[in-house]
C-alpha cells in the first residue's frame, strides 16, 4: 500500500475478487464531506463512497469487485486492470452549540418536558444520549430533541445530549438532573394515649406523594404489644406502661420511593383504679363529704367530672318535714 502527499492511496498486486477499503481512525474532528454516500461500486470518480455511522468512527467503502481487463478506462486512467473510483472525502465541522445550558427541574411522579435545540450546523439535527443515563421514566426523542416522561426516581443522573447535523457534525451538552420529591405530609400529628390491657388502633395517612404508601418504624421502639403494619395501622394491646411515653419515628414511602418521617410520642397509661366504686347517700340540706382515692398510676392525681353532673343544692323542705335522701350515682373516673 502506498500513498501520495495529497491523500491518494494505491493498493497493488491484488488478485481478482471482492474487496473493501477500511479506515479505522479517520480524522476525529472531520465528518465525511457529503451526507449522501454512494454505497455501490458504480465506477464513478469523485463521489463519496465512505460509510460512517458517526463523526470520528471508522469509515468503510462498499464492496469492490475487481476483475482483470474489465475495469473502467474513464475513471482517471486508461488501465482496464485498475479501479480508480473509490473516494473518501472529509470536511471540517462548524462549531455546533446545544442549548439550553441548564434544564428545568423535574419532580418525581409529575409529567416533565424539556426541548433541546442546536445551532451552527446544517439542519435537520438528530439527537442521542452519547454518555450517561437519563433519569428513570424519561426518554429522548431522536427526531425532535424533546426529553419527556414522568420521573420515577429521585436519584441524580449525569448524561450528555448529542446533536448531529445533516453532515454528521456533532455538538454535545453535559447535564445533571436530580428529580425532587413532592412534600409528603403525615397525619395524625399526635397520637392518643394507649392503656395497658386495652385494645389500641390508630391509622396513619399520608398526602402529597403518589399512592400507595408503605409504612415503617425507623427509630425508637414501639411499646410491647403494639405493631405497625405496612399499610400504616398501629394496633395491638399494650402490656406495659411507659411513664411519660416513648419517642417513635414513623416513615411513609410513596409509590416512587419518596419518603417522609414523623417523630411522635406514644404513651401507654397504667390501669388507674378509683375508689370507692359507690358513694353513700346524701341528705338534702345536710353537709356531705366523700373523699375519692386512686391507685395504679403515678401520683399526684387530679379529678374531673367526665360525664353527668353533681346534684343541685336543695333549697326547700319536702312534704312531711323530712329531708329526702339524694343518691349520687357511682361511675367515677380519675
Explain this structure to me?
The chain has 4 domains: 1-92, no CATH class; 97-177, Immunoglobulin-like (Sandwich), CATH 2.60.40.10; 185-269, Immunoglobulins (Immunoglobulin-like, Sandwich); 272-334, no CATH class. It is mostly beta strands and 334 residues long. It contains no helices and 28 strands. Strands 8-12-11 form a 3-stranded antiparallel β-sheet, with no helix packed on it. β22 and β23 form a beta hairpin. The N and C termini lie far apart (107 Å). Mean pLDDT is 84; it is low at 314-334.
Features:
3-stranded antiparallel β-sheet, Immunoglobulin-like, mainly beta, 4 domains, 334 residues
Biggest β-sheet: count, sense, barrel? Answer: 3 strands, antiparallel
Helix content: under 10%
Mean pLDDT: 84
Query: What integer value in Å does the Rg equal?
Result: 44 Å
Task: Please indicate the count of domains.
Answer: 4
User: What is the tally of beta strands?
Assistant: 28
Q: What structural class do the secondary elements suggest?
A: mainly beta
